[in-house]
Records
---
Amino acid sequence: MPRTLFDKIWDLHLVGQRADGRDLLYIDRHVLHELHAHHGFAYLQKQQRKVHRPDLTFAVQDHTVATKPGRDDDTNPTGAAFIKAMREGTRRNGIRLFDVGDPEQGISHVVAPEVGIVLPGATHAVPDSHASTVGGLGALAFGCGTTEMTHVLATQVMALKRPKRMRARLDGRLGAHVSSKDVALRLIAELGVAGARGYAVEYGGSAILAMPIEQRMTLCNLNIEMGGRSGFVAPDDATFAWLAGRPYAPQGAMWDRALEHWRTLITDDDAAFDREVVLDCHALEPQITWGTDPSQVVGISGRVPEPATLDASRRPAAESAFAYMGLQPGTALLGLPVNRVFIGSCTNSRLPDLEVAAAVVRGRRVAAGVAAMVVPGSSTVKREAEAAGLDRVFRDAGFFWGESGCSMCAGGNGDRGAPGERIVSTTNRNFENRQGPKTRTHLASPATAAASAIAGRIADVRQVLAGAA
Amino acid sequence: MQPFSSHTAVAAPLLRDDINTDQIAPVMHGRDLKEDYKVTLFYRARRRDDGSEDPDFILNKPQFRDAGILVTGNNFGAGSSRESAVWAMVANNIRVIVAKSFADIYRENCLQNGVLPIVLTAQEADDLTARVVAANGAAPFTVDLVSQRISGPGGAEMPFDIAAADRIRLLEGLDDIGLTLKHMNEIASWEQRIAAAQPWLQTAKDSR
Ligand code: SF4
């Protein structure tokens, strides 16, 4: 019987079935972060249990670390206890920690692929809803809660109900300065914030094939914003080339053997999906959110929608978003004055993201009155960007250039906007108060964020580069 | 985990869709490892800009202060995986959430913590919401997991569905990790088999 790639991965990892009917799915790689890890370690200690596979478990300090140059544990006073507790717990349990100061520290979803912890066809769990970022390499990843994380620590399996299968086919060639962030925002707008709930999503189509791995990761990162726990792209030659030589990936003869298997990781022709959606990307313009959930999206040349044009079920949320965002229906997004710009987060903080933003910024200045900030997704990205001189480009233009971490994505480290500020951000959630109390977040691509920093208002990168804005 | 069989409490209506975990349990600043989850629940929504209590927020109204059942719309618990968004419910003795639908991870987190997530059809949910609004906290509702019924003022008993396995887990307060630990032999033999068939999955070493 023809099978989907999802089913192939699931079936291989199926250890057994529990008395309550749940599938026990083996987790090949488990990555912790400091916000949740201490709960798990404390539980295990109390129960006198061990971590079952410390050698397949990794930990990264990301959510609470400061971004200030020269930072240490205490630079963000509210993070210190978490950072120290994870250091202690990982040491006690023999887990490799990418600590503050480690040359490979960064956001877990950026670090794990970068060092080769993530492999095609492998299962992956992180106590964070954006776990499926690594689906960009063809891994099947699950975001999990704290108890589920502890469960994986103790047993190396998750107890899951098998999700349904969705295929999202993204067709067409992306226009200049349009990226997978724009594609993802459009898809979330079309399907809604719960559109993929209960599904594992396989992304395919010509637009995906043409996407570099980092952009595939951005797309899979945003899968949870339409309610999908897992989303992935079947691995291909681009994936294998990207992964080859990374330190934790298999090497030599083992690599060859793995590669032979990875080439079988495709959905069979005629395999059945429970739902198929198609998005034509060829005429897509840069996208931006106007409201307070990631489905409230318009093209950059668009306007805040009139309630009458919205589906009735979306009207109440829209009404409250108008008020919160300080926007009237019918207002054009282009030209709205911006107070702050943030380029970073597990969504858009990899080297190519920074290159795109730097290309817009180069030789220009951040508009007066705009606080602009770039936070690389990992210390490796930071080093590579600096080697390429990107830090100078950003600094010369007036950006703050920070140490790696989650930073203003959720403000867990104290980096936040002030009440009432309008922020263009390359992150993944525009929820009320997310980037600081009463802040107004517009999600967009790195290109749009950089262009808006230069223009001092929400801008179309294509116009900024043409010198027309 | 605390077993769940029946819960009698005032029910409060949260008449919105897509209430997310940032709203339910905002990331707290000035926190330490021992967060007071009782205070975390709807921390921002409960307060006005100056930090004082917002008397208009539903759970601040005198009749709903001790609400132990929430009735809400679609996609409750969207957003992050943070389990504090369920611990905050438990800390406030909210043991039942009735919704038109839940975000996946949030629903899992409820089951892990003895909170009963009930999904009703839109029609049933609207009927129950109307009753909860009409009762206005004056009389409690009872949610019985043994008989799978909701009862209370303003109408007949209402049956609800829940997967049999989830029901047993809540009724018996089964520890999820304990359930899986019974399978450690199977886990070990899977590891052995894969170490031979796909050895790269069973090792993750720094090659440098
Ligand atoms: S960057 Fe944001 S979304 Fe990503 S892991 Fe950090 S806090 Fe979560």
---
Amino acid sequence: MSLAKKIISGDRRALARVLTLVENGDAHSKDILAELHPYGGKAHFVGVTGAPGVGKSSLVNFLAQSLRVLGDTVGVLAVDPSSPFGSGAILGDRVRMADLTGDDGIYIRSMASRGAVGGLAYATGAAADVLDAAGFNYVIIETVGVGQSGVEISNHVHTTIVLVASGAGDDVQAIKSGILETADILVVNKADLPGAEHVLADMRSNVVMNPSPAPSDHHAKSKQFDGSDLAWRVPLLSTVARSGDGVDLLIKSLLQHWEYLENSAEIDNRRRTRIRAILESLLRNRLYTRFMEDISRKQFDALLESIVLRDIDPYSAAARLIEEKYQASCLDKA
Amino acid sequence: MGKHPIRVLIAKLGLDGHDRGAKIIARSLRDAGMEVVYTGLRQTPAMIAEAALHEDVNVVGISILSGAHNTLLPTLMDKLREQNLAHIPVIVGGIVPDCDVNTLMDAGVSAVFGPGTLTSDIVTSIANVIESDLQD
């Protein structure tokens, strides 16, 4: 049985092995991903992001448990940064997810960013696709701790949950562009700490809000969004992730967002955005890798030296390298 | 293209709460270019086996200072076998009297490191243990 078929049949060892192959860019991973592709497209991808230490892992712990209670299966990808000085990393998100152990309906995989910036690893999109094909109802992607520019995750998921710490910054922070704009659900965590009310007030005055989401039946079509009101208003919630306080309302918002996406056909836009993000990322990385493989180390170092000696500037050097490669491949075809 | 990073699981087995050593090892392995899945305190053998399965690690590193190694390590080896992970080398650090080292090795442990071991020796040992694993 192929690895892909094993994954479909629920073999967790095969799943773990394929995630490694995908992460390492192994030559076989392309074929395995192709074989898995028809089985995907069903999972609800959820991104959980925010600054380092804001409580993402703790929140994912409770999120996953609550989703299990509803009868759903959950795959978690937890990304942590690789060291800037080597290839090493400390992947410590599992520490906060001890409650999720011993349940075959939950799968947790830690990934190092391996040089990628923006909050995800290069292989996170593919890893999420594998979990989707494996049949998990939800795939939760927890980014590295990010700042204002951590917007990449929103291209990769259906629902983006942004966590904000109580006591972080002033009202001007709340109106700045970036990560806050990408939130489908905004959560002030550590709501038990002093300063939480202040942050909530700032967020409330600067973020479009959905006034207390009405409880809706998980499986029924939402009556809240009729044809005249197709916009999603971002709910502002508060949680204490350490204890699970507030997670029930977060789950409600998550379910409502999915209903909204399906009812408004926004789901197709999100899917398209996600696929575009993955495709562009693949092209960017593979073209660069292939380009660099074709240049000899000596040639590159020599060019570097010329720039240091100011014989040539970096901009012309880059243009020259690309032009040479482009001409060479055109000549090959001629 | 360089080799892919070695993935190591570092876990505190049982009820001992001293994690300073485990964190130092985790950082040393990180500095040596390894990806360390650090699972923290109070891990049961079942939790460690599950983590080793999910994370597809190359090595399992156990820190244990409580004296319960003769009970917990064999249980861990059983759990790893249950998950078809018996091929993953298990190394142990902490407080293990010399007289117990053979017991652990007989149970399947690849190496035991006592206090005073140089972190560089642990890094080398892991690289060797994986190398010989690949050759088997």
---
Amino acid sequence: MTFVPPSIDWAALAPIVIVLGAAVVGVLIEAFVKDAVRRMVQVILAVVALGAALVTVAWRWTVVQAQGPAELVGGAIVEDTPALMAQGVVLICAFLGMLVIADRVGGEDGFTPVAAGAPGSTYEAQARRLGLVQTEVYPLVLFSVGGMLVFPAASDLLTLFIALEVLSLPLYLLAGLARRRRLLSQEASLKYFLLGAFSSAFFLMGLALLYGYSGSVRFADLAAAVPAMVGMDVVLLAGVVLVLVGLLFKVGAVPFHSWVPDVYQGSPTSITGFMAACTKIAAFAALVRFLYAVVPGLTWDLSPLLWTIAILTMIVGTVLAIVQTDIKRMLAYSSVAHAGFVLLGVIALTSSGISSVMFYLLVYGVATVGAFGLVTLVRERDAEGNVTGEATRVEQWAGLGRRHPVLAVCFTLFLLSFAGIPLTAGFVGKFTVFAAAVEGGAWPLVVIAVLASAAAAFFYVRMIVLMFFTDPDQDAGSTVVRTEGTTAIAVAVCAVATVVLGVVPTPILSLTSEATKFML
Amino acid sequence: MTLVHYLVLSGILFSIGAVTVLVRRNALVAFMGVELMLNAANLMLVTFARMHGDLHGQVIAFFVMVVAAAEVVIGLAIIVSIHRTRGSASLDDANLLKN
């Protein structure tokens, strides 16, 4: 028996290698670089790595356009246009998210000085006094982004499973690192971890069943085995459904959404923005590849399930968002509703469905990072006038538009984009997704989606009215803190992107429409 | 004893694990339920590998073990930090995030 070494095209793997390599270097920096400069070094490394990976993805896009898609690492990963498009969108949102994460808003970053110290302990107080900084955040984010880059490009179920864990495990930890309200943060971390591990166990069981059905975990072999369905179709269907459960959990679709509001509310806000945008993009890209390329023959068997989930997701997300009084929780439920809208494009099962999903995810991602970035800036004051945690109760935002017009206008812009008002990116995103769904014959879903959007507009507009036309509550005492500048840059970029994608979407739409050919 | 028995056993173990996660109120016990589910999947992978007569399933089981080990590291870190804060690992006590 001879060992045949696989040929590895390192140039094609460059985006993944850059991000994961920078993460490993970041761990070494933790060990070897002095406290005084460590944070600065980590931030620069992380931002440069994400930027370089983005440039590399753009370069690979041109290569794939010229030479066609390719299999990498013996077929475990593919390089095709949908994978590169998803990676590009993930990297854009991760880059903007990293700018928010790195900002020391109001003179301190959003992370606890010692995650190991119990909240309120003398150990924690000491660490706070000494000004310790938990800079492990940056390598953890990079590891997570690395998983997100592999996720849309994975070409077998095992790679998909490993990528799922690589993107999830750092996020479980990051959720528990908030500087303020640490009890909430730890609780969010625990819930995210237990439910995440639970869902990945389902995913794994689905993997095992599909392996049993087809004798392989390769997407190409699976796709070849599906049409030959005789007798063992229970195994096949159960396997496909369990894998879908794992993916839909990451997406945050109802009934697998119960973690979303708790985790989004409890996590450090900058991390919430990053994970709300990037996890959803990566998971939807993998979901689309799985449904379109691996099991297209099962459309008839799966469509009742997918239709039910899409309807429930849109309705539950919208209705529960209306009754929320916490702004992070409201945005969390709104992101559940958005997952329902994206599912419309997924269900369409047309090539315009894929491109509309990609466009929607870009639009949703930039608006989400921007909105959560702004939430980090609005703070509470205690009785002595000290600035404390974030003012997340909705009524604390009353009258913000008069005192801080720029901030309020940007937030309004993101809310209008979420609501899908014309001349914002959200409108074009919704329009393309709905058009794809109609083309795919899912018009009853579109009717429900339009009604849900109309209902959702209610709480977005209520928020806008509150900011601009309501007198500020004197007791609430919210204030806006200064940024170091990076959050401002990120929010500005997000706001400009939201307007530009809404007014002249054609270039990006034509780009996403090229990202429709899956390779197995 | 045919190989199908192993598949049935793995299904039973998986169900026990899932019920444990949903019913038990201690974070550590719930986490053990997750581990049981992962190992049930491992048993199924190895059985199918035997049925198909190829090694992929067995190799995947090793990957799963490594992932499970990584998950234990992260999970225990989170549960221990919660336990230090509250003095208990009960999931019913962790209820601040509710409306």
---
Amino acid sequence: MSSSRLRDAVHLLLANAAIAALVALYRSWFLSPNPATIALSFLLVILVVATRGRLWVAVVTAVFATAAFNFFFLPPTGTFTVADPHNWVALLAFLIVAIVSSNLSSAARARAREAIARRDEVTRLFDLSRDILLTTESASALPSLARHAARRFELDTLALFLPREKGWERHEGGIRASSLEEGELDRFLAKAGGAIEFDALRRTYGGHQTRLGGDGVVEQVVPLRIGTRPIGLLSAAGPGVDPGTLDALAGVAAIAVERAHFLEERKSAELERQRAELASAVLASFSHDLRTPLTAIQVAVANLVDPEIGRAEREGQAEVALREVHRLRRLFQFILDMAQVDAGITPEREWVLPGDVVDAAVALVAQGLAAHRVEIDADPDREVEIDPRLTSGALAHVLENAAQHSPEGSVIRVRAWLDEEGLHVSVLDQGPGLDPADLERLFDPFYRGVGSSRHATGVGLGLSITRGLLAAEGGRIWAENAPPDGARFTILVPARSRAASLAPEGRT
Amino acid sequence: MNRQSRILLVDDELPILRAVTPLLRSRGYEVRSVVTGAGALTEMEADPPDLLIVDLGLPDVDGFEICRRVRERSAVPIIVLSARHSEKDKVQALDLGADDYVTKPFGPDELLARVRACLRRSPLSPEEQTGTLVRSDLTIDFERHRVLRGEEEIRLTPKEFELLSFLARHPGKVLTHRTILKAIWGPHAVNEPQYLRVLMASLRRKIETDPAHPKYVLTEPWVGYRFREC
């Protein structure tokens, strides 16, 4: 405010100084100039002032110039009286021309200024729209919109409010948070409904409301609308908050809200699709994995009672059937584990020895480990509070995985220890190790590393189930290469531990 | 059977081989087994068997590819074993030249019946193609285009007769919809299954005593039809 007043004063001073300078110039002129020349040169000064400054500055200059013209150049000079009636007409004409022309040029200037302001506004809105369209992440879209809008429009406060089932969702931008409260928001939104009309002069649709906060800050509240339906509110405070601009801003914000909503929906549809795809892949895999052992069992068992098959061959059939029954049992465990992971498991923690957990896991997959030597090194002095079934189930898949990826007869080393983080169990095999390319996707469902056996049960699901089971306990699993041996998988289950009691339960 | 029929069994699942091989041997067949598709193709080349039993899901060359390659140079009957549940796979295998399919899990009797049927109709006898075929009380005279049920002549339209004789010339073999459509109406009709449905319905009304429970032309659900073997 003060800076523009100062500028006006400077304009006025300069203009009047220019008039005074012209007067001095013409007075000292060696030949007396024609009054028309003098009037025109004064007019020039007034026009310059009108194009550069405000209208009132130009008018004051015009009046001053008229007075000076009269006083110094119209006879009798040195007085404000005018002898010749012709000169009265000239003087009046000069004043009218000066005022009208300064009015015109000032209006042109205002229009230019308005056009520039509109252009700036359009540019900012365009930038803002672009920001919105480039955002693909629905969660960050609205907070970043609030921030960008506050910065681009130089607002102290810019807040977006969206009604939710309970309360309001707020996104604040700018340096000062909005002080609007939920009750007020409810009222504002209620008032925003109903018919809307365009106000051409203010370039706004109805529904603008002003709110004076306790701290003296005036916030403008504008409804966000899709069509005529209000979907939220925008509140802004700061210098030069133009209602039309706010309306346009609210329009852009409404689009952003709709877009965020749309992105959210698309994401959940995508997740749903992925889930369905995974489910059908799991079904196909299990269906295949079930059919083979079932066929072998059915034929082998029939062979056992088939009188046409010789005694020696029948014995082999029993073994085939038994092996396949084991395979089915393991597969059954897979299905149960997956169903558990899917249904969400509540871990049931109890105090156990790490060694017992490892033993239980080894027992679960004894069949798969038969061709390997398993060496166990477990901390015997401390107990840990975990869900032993979940943990050993998860560990069993890791052991099975190690056996499938290392040569028969090789050693699988299992080490279990406790520290302040919880229970660690590492499984080290003597296989070829992990391809660095596999590391990222190792725990994804159906991911099978290069060269893994086709006949592994629950092909490609074991490690993803492990991760699911561990997650229920807040645990995790990671893998690394441990040359000169093969791969090392380590699981960590966060848990409390304590010194083992002298006669530990469950150990005889 | 003047000599032992020789069967080549291809499956990468050892338990299947270990159970099925003794079963087939006990029925007097000579059985060789291989675990890869490439091995199967080599064996086919070196010493062609009388029957090929092949699993569709082999790790290297899959069963479809084996059907296609074997059919290019040999008429040996092929039975595919499938752990897949989709009918599309069966149809594809049959269209590629397989004669029959058995879906896992299967029982020994089912497999043995298919093996017997496949070996019996191989090689195709020329009399069967031109002479008369008798199935219980149904007599088909291919030469005179006549069909009798008992003593009574059944009047068939030319298309109905064409359909019946096409099926009857391949007794026991599963013929896919596509194969039949192509044989009766030509290649442009392979995607018009309703032609076949309508014609089959009218044929069955004439030849079957109870069209709802057909005795001569059997339906293989979602795959095709099979003419009764004996």
